Amino acid sequence: MKSMTGFGRGECVSRGTRYSVEIGTVNRRNAELVFNLPRELAPFENLLREILAPAVARGRATVTASVSSGADARPLLDPDLFRRLHRELAAVQRSLKIPGSPALSDLVRLYAATARETVSGPAADSAALAKAAHSALRSLETMRTKEGAHLARELRRLLNLFADEITAIGKLAPSVTAKHREAMRSRLAALDPAFAADDERLARELALFADRSDITEELSRLESHLKQFGAGLSSKDANGRSLDFLAQEMFRECNTIGSKANSAAVTRHVIAAKTELERLREQVQNVE
């Protein structure tokens, strides 16, 4: 089991250039990859996506990459390019007979547009970037796996507490129907003393009432859900969605039991079960 939240960082130095990749993941219902890349690394977004996407089955992953050089980093401005642009712009002005000299603001805008294509420095090393990404991913997976182990222990604890309440309800279930049956007989006898205990109509109504108050089916489904949830905690696959679905189904069965049983003793256990189940559902939201 893995947690959806985590952080990983990786670096790789190639030919004096340092490539850094950071990955931060948070809870989300579906998988989502967001990239924050500098201009020189933007062409490698697909490369990073191919490396990282298989590891993010659920949750939002924000990927930040950077590249930096040492003391030999190129200057912020290229004087030769600036002078060449000034000469060419002045020549265009003269040919078009435009009075004056090129304005500094015009030169700066032209330089900025040209520098994006001509002053890009050494080509980025895709292999080094990929190595940094793999390193960041390993760091992320280590953290998510560690958090996932803690989540699994907590989910088992909560599941056991929930199962204890369901077991207690199961023990009360046979007596609930019998008590309802006797209560109805007493009420009918008080209303109409002439109503025979073996009256066919009474027997039919009692049978219908017993069917409506029977929680055996709900308990059976809960037992199945508990087994599936327990198996899911040991699964090596990303199954946060299925665990979330099972938790919702168990909550629904508890609501049905509470409404059908109409018993104070059962209601107390239903409330306790739903309390533990709500805690369990909150933790499931962190599972990938």
Mean pLDDT: 83
Number of strands: 4
What name does the CATH topology of the largest domain carry? Four Helix Bundle (Hemerythrin (Met), subunit A)
Compute the gyration radius: what is it? 35 Å
Secondary-structure element pattern, one letter each: EEEHEHHHHHHH
The share of residues in extended strands comes to 5-15%
List the strand order in the largest sheet: 1-2-4-3
Residue runs with pLDDT of under 50 for 5 or more positions: 118-122
Assembly category: single chain
Major sheet details: 4 strands, mixed
CATH architectural grouping of the largest domain = Up-down Bundle
Helix fraction, binned, reads 55-70%
Overall, the morphology is elongated
CATH class of the largest domain: Mainly Alpha
Number of domains: 3
Total helices: the number is: 8
C-alpha termini separation: 7 Å
Q: Would you tell me the structural class of the helices and strands? A: alpha+beta
List keywords for this structure.
288 residues; alpha+beta; Ribosomal Protein S5, domain 2; Four Helix Bundle (Hemerythrin (Met), subunit A); 3 domains; 8 helices; elongated
